[in-house]
Design goal:
Elements lengths: L2 H17 L4 H4 L3 H13 L9 H5 L1 H11 L8 H19 L3 H19 L26 H16 L11 H14 L1
Helix pairs in contact: 1-3, 1-7, 1-8, 3-7, 6-7
This protein binds zinc ion.
The site of zinc ion (ZN) has 6 residues, from α7.
């Protein structure tokens, strides 16, 4: 998927997650915090590609990453997602006192990237280091910008028409975990 596709898809996912009340923090979050965070999160997995937006900015990270794991390797796995969550909460947030809505939106953006790449024929190795790739190739042409935009618009329209009573919440345990560090600082 193209960078534009990932950015659009992440914003659509954020609107959907907010409407579905996936986490209380996202439901009451500040859009001026969440939009930049979800956009950044949606670009992070492609740090393993030196030609990507972040890969070009941080070649010192992208070059060794692409050599070691290849494109759509480690950074496109649940292990990397969990690693980012732990690193962010234990190292980054305590030092800069970053609010919880930024953290939740960043993770959502990251997750939206993995989901979006699953919609392409190459899929992603969600269970890396296992090699099995997960794919649901709805976007079967390369650089299919029209298709990418269409899916994002579809999600946005779906989100806008979701009745409030359909709001879901992540299992209580995950929510408690996500809330834990935030509550500590309040
Ligand atoms: Zn990717």
């Amino acid at each position: 998927m193209t960078a534009e596709g990932h950015l659009l898809f992440s914003v659509a996912t954020l609107v959907l997650a907010q409407k579905l009340n996936i986490t209380p923090v996202l439901a009451q979050g500040d859009w001026f915090h969440m939009i930049p965070a979800v956009l950044l999160g949606s670009l992070l997995p492609d740090l393993d590609h030196p030609g990507s937006i972040l890969g070009r900015l941080f070649r010192i990270i992208s070059l060794p990453l692409s050599k070691l794991c290849g494109h759509r390797g480690f950074t496109h796995s649940l292990l990397a997602f969990c690693g980012l969550a732990i690193l962010w909460e234990t190292q980054i947030t305590p030092r800069w006192d970053i609010s919880a809505d930024i953290f939740h939106a960043l993770l959502l953006g990251y997750l939206s990237h993995l989901i979006a790449d699953i919609l392409t024929p190459s899929g992603v190795p969600l269970l890396w280091p296992l090699k099995a790739r997960f794919t649901l190739p709805i976007l079967n042409k390369k650089n299919n910008k029209k298709g990418e935009r269409f899916i994002s618009v579809l999600i946005l329209i779906g989100a806008l028409f979701i009745p409030p009573h359909l709001a879901i919440s992540l299992p209580a345990q995950i929510n408690n975990w996500l809330q834990m560090y935030h509550d500590k600082r309040v």
